[in-house]
Amino acid sequence: MSRIAKAVAADPNRVIVFDTTLRDGEQAPGFSMSPDDKVRLAQVLADLKVDVIEAGFAAASPGDEEGVRRVVGEVGRGAEGPVFCSLARAGEADIDAAWRALRGTEERRVHIFLGSSPIHRAAKLRMTTDEVLETADRAIRYARTRFDDVEFSPEDAIRTEPGFLAEICEVAAAAGASTLNIPDTVGYATPTEIGDIFRTLITRVRARFPEVIFSTHCHDDLGLAVANSLSAVEAGARQVEGAINGIGERAGNASIEEIIMAIRTRADRYGLHTKADTTQLVRASRMLCEITQVPTPRNKAIVGMNAFAHEAGIHQHGMLADSRTYEIMRPQDVGFDGTSFVLGKHSGRHAVAKRAEALGHILAGEHLNAAFSGFKTRADQIGEIDDRELLAIVEAARPVPCYEEPAYAAVG
What is the pTM of this model? Predict the structure, then answer.
C-alpha cells in the first residue's frame, strides 16, 4: 500500500491534494513553463504541503521528461514531502518515460489515462469497449511492475455510460490501480450529477476493492469546477485535483486554493481536512503569475487583490467594528499581510476619517465635512484615493484661521 493510501486509511476524513499546475495547468496556451520554472514553482508547492505534484507528462517531449526529472532531483522533500507524478497514456512507452523521469525518488506515481466515453472511443481511439478494457488492464499491470502507486483516469468519465464506467473502474482496480480518478474532462457535469456518479461508483467498486481511493478532477467550462469538486468530495472522493489560480486547458482546472479553503472554512459542513499550509497560497499564486506573466484577476477568490479589500462605506464601517461582519476567513490564513481598505467613491466618512487619523490628521467638524466633500469629488475623478491624494485633500480642506483685529489705545 502506498504512503498516500495508508494516510487515507488511517484518517478517513483526510482529503489528498493533488496539484496539476505543472502538467494540466501548463499545457494550456500562455502557461508553458521551462524546466527552471517548474523547479521554482514545485518548491513552493512542496512548501504548501500538497500531497502529490504532477510534475509533467514525461512522454510528451524530451523537455517535459527533463522537467519532471529536475523537479524530482532538485525539490526539497522529507518523509512527509510530496509524491511526484507523471502522466502517461495507456502504453508501455509512456509508462517507461514516466519511470525514467521519476526513478530518482521512491515517492513516485504514474497517472495513466485512457478515453472511456463513446465519443472518445469512436473518434479518438477507434476502439470497442472490450478493447478499451483490455488496454487499460494491460497498461496498469505493466505499470505495477515499475510503480507501487498507480492512478487511473477513464478520460471523459462524466460522458461515459454509467455501467461501462463502473466496469472499467473495476478492471483498473483489479489490475492494481490504487487511485481511481473520475475526470470531468470537458467541464460538463453539474454538482448534483457528479455527486450521484461518485456515490454510485463508490458503492459498487468498494464492495470488491475497499482500499481504492476515489479522486475528482474537474474542468471549468461551465464555471462549475470547484462546486463539482466539492460535491464529489461530499459524496466520498478523498483526492481532489486542481491547479493554482485554476489554470489549465480551455477555461481551466478547478482552482486548488479555492477547494482547500472551502474545505477548511466550511469544516462544519464537510467534516474534512487537508494537510495544506494555507499561508503559502498567495505566495504560490504570485510565483505562478511571475513565471507565466499572466496576472491574477483582482476579484479572484482567495488570492486576488480584492479578496480581502473593502471600498463600500457600509462594509468598511462593519469591518472597523468587527472583521467577521464581511470576512469569513482571515487574510493571514492564506498569506496576505492583512485586510485592505480601498478608499474610493463608495467609501464612507468613517473610513476616510480613520485613514486620515492613521496618517496623523484628526478630522472633525467642518474640517471633516470639507475633507469628505473634497474626497468624494476627487474619487469620482480618479477612482481610488491613495495616501498621497488623501493628504492633499485633507490639507486643501483645512479651515483658514480667523484673526481678530488688534485693539489700539487712543492717542492724545
Answer: 0.84
